[in-house]
Write a structure and sequence with these properties.
The chain has 329 residues and is of the alpha/beta class. It folds into 2 domains: 157 residues, Glycogen Phosphorylase B (Rossmann fold, 3-Layer(aba) Sandwich), CATH 3.40.50.2000; 148 residues, Glycogen Phosphorylase B (Rossmann fold, 3-Layer(aba) Sandwich). 34% of the residues lie in helices and 16% in strands. The protein contains 12 helices and 12 strands. The strands form 2 sheets. Strands 3-2-1-4-5-6 form a 6-stranded parallel beta sheet, with helices on both faces. A 6-stranded parallel beta sheet has the order 9-8-7-10-11-12, with helices on both faces. Helix 8 links the parallel strand 7 and strand 8. Helix 8 packs across helix 9, helix 8 packs across helix 12 and helix 10 packs across helix 11. The N and C termini lie far apart (42 Å).
């Protein structure tokens, strides 16, 4: 890529954790192409975490969930018109590798790059791409995200691109706050959730107040139960995505399930401890301050067992020991 002012489209629609783990590429792109114009196509529910990002030209929300729920032809026609109205891109990159993300690229003008048939999560998506990357599916998702985009743009991949990143999202305010720990108690599936009974015990084992981060009415009920059964648990307020980034960035440690809010800590260069049951550390980028604990189950990342509730076998005392080590770093 020789154009010093390339127009680039990134298609990464969902989920929140995947968007967080992809956004590191923005600083990599602008390091090599300071004048690049980058647009991001994202599921509308997650657009707020990207809006006003200084390294993005535009965030284009796509209402896929609303389309699926309402089956509105008018909304579908409006969405397609929005995509077709975009200016031509020098590079369109599908960093998701699903049929739905590939279909979005089909309505944009420009050459499309993505994972090849064997590397994509849904191999049929590769039919929509002009060029492809061969990237093993079983490596870290963060490496995969970075590698498919750097390959598309002709940027040689180096591990330091990820290891030396600056905080991924801008902070509107910097606060002085008392020591605190964030506990992310929810996840997209029940099998990924650490039991509330274990969380209550964990809170009492930790040295700082534990703020329970929740995102749904069911999670709020669990937070109430934990707070009632622990003397060291506080229910965090309801927060939007930008507020959540600010909150996590000001916590001394985040402990949580394999889900987006937990991954924010890594993105913001803050300590974290991720708990895995049916998934494993492939979902994160471990560092000396971003660690993980796996359950005893054998994980097949090519066929995730969503009925694997082995996360409950992780001992709260083991989590507390790791947490205290991270807090002392």
């Amino acid at each position: 890529m020789k154009n010093p002012h390339p127009r680039i489209a990134i298609v990464r629609l969902s989920a929140l954790g995947d968007i967080i783990n992809t956004a590191v590429v923005l600083q990599i792109i602008h390091h090599h192409y300071p004048h690049a114009v980058v647009d991001w196509f994202v599921e509308e529910a997650f657009a707020p975490i990207l809006e006003s990002h200084p390294l993005l030209h535009a965030v284009i929300p796509i209402p896929l969930k609303r389309l699926k729920k309402t089956k509105s032809f008018a909304l579908l026609r409006k969405t397609i018109a929005t995509l077709r109205a975009c200016e031509r891109y020098d590079h369109i990159i599908d960093a998701q590798g699903l049929l739905k993300s590939a279909l979005i690229t089909a309505f944009l003008k420009g050459s499309v790059h993505g994972f090849d048939r064997k590397s994509a999560r849904e191999g049929v998506a590769a039919w929509f791409y002009r060029t492809t990357s061969t990237i093993p599916y079983d490596i870290s998702v963060i490496r995969r995200n970075v590698m498919v985009i750097t390959d598309a743009l002709g940027i040689p991949f180096e591990e330091a691109m990820i290891a030396t990143k600056t905080p991924v999202f801008p902070l509107d305010v910097l606060l002085q706050s008392d020591p605190k720990i964030a506990l992310v108690i929810g996840a997209s599936r029940a099998s990924k959730c650490y039991p509330k009974e274990h969380f209550a015990l964990l809170c009492d084992l930790l040295p700082y107040p534990c703020h329970l981060v929740w995102g749904s009415s069911h999670e709020y009920e669990d937070a109430q139960w934990i707070a009632h059964h622990s003397h060291n648990a506080l229910i965090a307020p309801q927060m939007g995505l930008k507020e959540l980034v600010t909150f996590i960035a000001h916590c001394d440690l985040t402990i949580g399930n394999d889900t987006g809010p937990t991954h924010i800590a890594w993105a913001m260069n803050r300590p974290s401890l991720t708990l895995f049951g049916p998934t494993n550390e492939r979902m994160i980028y471990p560092t000396h301050i971003n660690r993980f604990i796996n359950s005893p189950s054998e994980v097949n990342i090519f066929k995730i067992n969503h009925n694997d509730f082995s996360i409950s076998a992780i001992d709260p005392h083991s989590i507390a020991t790791y947490a205290k080590e991270l807090l002392s770093c």
